[in-house]
From TrEMBL:
This is citrate synthase (unknown stereospecificity). Pfam families: Citrate_synt. PANTHER family: CITRATE SYNTHASE, CITRATE SYNTHASE, PEROXISOMAL. Gene3D superfamilies: Citrate Synthase, domain 1, Cytochrome P450-Terp, domain 2. GO terms for molecular function: citryl-CoA lyase activity.
């Protein structure tokens, strides 16, 4: 008795043997079916474009847009995305993600592990403000009053994400990014709704204060990503992608320096201690001397 046969590969009704039976090949290949790329011998299609046509013709930011959105951006959209990615690449070795990557690099792990260590710290608290700001912007665009949202955050003693900065009285990245958004609004490339929402929140935060609370990098890039139509969660992903450049740069610099097992404090300094004073362990068990001896 002859075994199952397989028609020519690639045909719509092609079958593949699975144990004692055959199943349509498409049911197997569709297990990882994707609209992002098609890889065959001698062929690489990215969202339908042959990779050889993209190389040298599109920027990295345009390629990112193509991969996550499915189509190439307009020149203005590509410029806005690139500006946001450039602006957020680094904020110095005091940033936890970068400090962790530098420490990892001194522990002899590979560069990929050092970068993964840093990127792994980008969560809700460190790295999540952009996504959170996009969600707040959406509330204002949806009709909620910016003053009421600010009052809500103040009532629970929380920071409005995307505004204020621990180091900068006015974030130097704010103005050039927002100016690019204004140019895109004037050109009819974006609606300006997120920009207006951000400015309303900024104005509401300034009311009743001697010093304003200007927008920071998270707020400015949140406006760009929202104006470009990215979902909030993907906005965080784009921030992680951007900051990974700085993480990579610092990890590489640290690995080139040759330091070993570099901790969070310089070696002459020791971490503070606020536990009990030094004390003796009471005698217990086998250490106790029996009575009468």
């Amino acid at each position: 008795m002859s075994g199952p046969t397989t028609p020519s590969a690639g045909g719509p009704e092609a079958e593949q043997p699975v144990g004692e039976r055959t199943v349509p090949e498409r049911r197997i290949t569709d297990h990882w079916s994707t609209a992002v790329s098609r890889i065959r011998p001698g062929e690489i299609l990215l969202r339908g474009y042959p990779v050889e046509q993209l190389i040298g013709k599109v920027s990295f930011a345009e390629q990112i847009w193509l991969m996550v959105r499915g189509e190439l951006p307009t020149p203005v959209q590509g410029r806005l995305l690139e500006a946001a990615l450039v602006a957020a690449v680094d904020h110095g070795p005091q940033a936890p993600s970068i400090a962790a990557a530098r420490m990892a690099a001194t522990c002899g792990v590979g560069l990929n592990s050092a970068v993964a260590t840093g990127a792994g710290l980008l969560g809700d608290v460190h790295g999540g403000a952009g996504q959170q700001c996009m969600e707040v912007l959406a509330r204002v665009v949806g009709g909620e009053d910016a003053r009421e949202i600010v009052a809500e955050y103040r009532q629970r003693r929380a920071y409005v994400p995307g505004f204020g900065h621990r180091f900068h009285p006015r974030d130097p990245r704010r103005d050039p990014l927002l100016e690019l958004v204004r140019e895109a609004v004037a050109a009819g490339e974006v609606s300006g709704d997120a920009l207006r929402a951000g400015e309303e929140l900024e104005a509401a935060l300034a009311e009743g204060r001697a010093r304003p609370v200007p927008m920071n990098i998270d707020g400015a890039t949140a406006i760009i990503y929202a104006e470009l139509g990215f979902p909030a969660e993907l906005g965080r992903g784009l921030f992680v992608l951007s900051r990974s450049v700085g993480i990579l740069s610092h990890a590489w610099e640290e690995s080139e320096g040759g330091a070993r097992i570099k901790g969070p404090l310089p070696r002459p300094l020791l971490a503070g201690y606020h536990g009990p004073a030094e004390r003796e362990l009471p005698r217990r068990g086998a250490d106790e001397v029996p009575a009468g001896e």
